[in-house]
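Sample entry was shown:

___
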Amino acid sequence: MLVNRLILGDNLETLKTLESESVDLIYLDPPFFSNRNYEVIWGDAGEVRSFQDRWAGGIDHYIAWLKERVTEMHRVLKPAGSIFLHCDWHANAYIRVDILDKIFGMDNFHGEIIWQRHNSHNDAKNKLAVLTDTIWYYTKSDTCIYNPIYGSLDEKYTDSFYKYDDGDGKGLYRLGDMASPNPRPNMMYEWQGFPYPAKGWRYEKETMQKLHDEGNIYYPADSEGNYDYSKRPALKRYLNEQKGQLLGNIWTDIQNVQSQSSERIGYPTQKPEALLERIIKMASNEGDVVLDPFMGGGTTIAVADRLNRQWIGVDQSAMAVKVTELRLQKQTDLFAASYTV
């Protein structure tokens, strides 16, 4: 299959030409069922025609229009592939029940990502302000690519627990228990004069020696600086070695593209690169094929290219293809992979 392609055309017709089980990850941000004219972004004839067609029969017509395309996306996904469908409150329930559950199966539902893209603001009278989008996450099978993702540790947490510093350049650390949570008869040995815990140490003697030699064990001391054997040694867990906090399905740490942002291209529904970077890293590896069948401003393609993924981007707007090409050109260097339009 040819990859690294920007394709101008109807994504349904393009999807039909792609080989079955040839794509590792699909992210799609289709036009929302919001009845807002900004969906006709560039004003291309193809965009206007599609906008009018989607709305001709209301929600049922919209779901049928989208379902036909998602059916083809399921076909082109590899068995270990994933799909992320970005939508909002207008149609998210219909999309899950009438499209994704039926095509991918409820057993392959992996999460409802709630992305907070706005801060609190006034909305219509007697109605809660809508601050979030939904990103449905499904896989083709129970065997899939999944790389855990981590966010920043909470500042209150780090201030409370990472409060030790030996001044040796290793930075702040907290103390971790070195006692085994389960009985470990083979780990019941005296260490540096300290008796073993009731269930034994957590580490073998060889590992304890390595931690000791590296200065990674905290030894309690009395007022005179001697070992206090009434207490127990602890493991030094350094802040700069932590991956961060394992993220769940509520993402509040990625801002929408702001007016002053350097990545802003003037596309009203443009998604931030950080959002796509997180999704692509989570559900694919370097060299994998990423498909965006509603390419728009090209964020998925630009990020996939930067992360050394292969990619295919499709849009029926000539302007969308051109804007995406310009974004690729800005980040091209001697090591960048070639692509075709």
